Amino acid sequence: MNMTEKAALLLPEKFRQALCSCSGAPVEEIRLRLGRVPTVLRGGTEEPISEEQVRGEDLSRLLEIGTGASVHTAAQALAEGYLSYRGIRIGICGTAVIRDGRLCGFRELSSAAIRLPRAYPGICDAAAEEICREGFESTLILAPPGGGKTTALRELIRTLSERGARVGVVDERNELAAMDGSAAAFDLGAHTDVLTGTGKAQGALLLLRGMNPQIIAMDELSDPRDLDAVQQICGCGVKLLSSIHAADSDELRLRPDGQALLDGRVFRYLITIRGAGAARRYDVERLDA
Description:
The chain is built from ten helices and 15 strands. It is an alpha/beta fold. It folds into two domains: 3-115, Beta-Lactamase (2-Layer Sandwich), CATH 3.30.450; 125-286, Rossmann fold (3-Layer(aba) Sandwich). α7 packs parallel to α8 (224-234). It is globular, with a radius of gyration of 19 Å.
């Protein structure tokens, strides 16, 4: 079952058939907005797939399927504004429920964004050659939200693993390997070990202690605990491959956490993703050059 077919299972039958009949460029996202027609994002443009409007029960049903009929057990993920369903990220909007000053979920859902991950073998070959020219050094991938960071990270993990490196992956949201039961939707290479079901900071330390990795990979550094784990990893003789939200290195330096990452000399290379879709390019910057 491919990602489009998996995503279709989240939709009511009236939209499912329309999605599966889409031809042309691959679907990147599915958007459901209350009282509006459903759309798909392809090539940076949204287009409708049905003339029927999204109803409240459609969004409720999506949430029920996406959480395995247990919204309570998915409360922590919902507090981050999204769910992970068989490797697919589901973003949620609606009326936020705040308790003790913290977001603990949503009620009266108003919209959902279903993001379909895909593998694009070879997209980072030139960047991989550059960062491995003298042996792999720790590398950070930069792009804004939706800019292709996870796709690039997945491909670099596979490339480094196929070159013989032992890569430990903390797949916090199950979006890199997209494990579905015991099977992975994406090939991360022959020498890759994947840890799911834990946060990046704890998972990185578990891999460090138990799996003897040469490289630890994890997506989207954001929490201060992630940055602490990065500092610990780089002091243990293990290289790091990760990503972070930023349009480029100048924007990253405007953030206190970004400046701290660069000042800490954790990363030797930055890969900045520019453009969109097939027009994306992967610019490599060596920080100590």
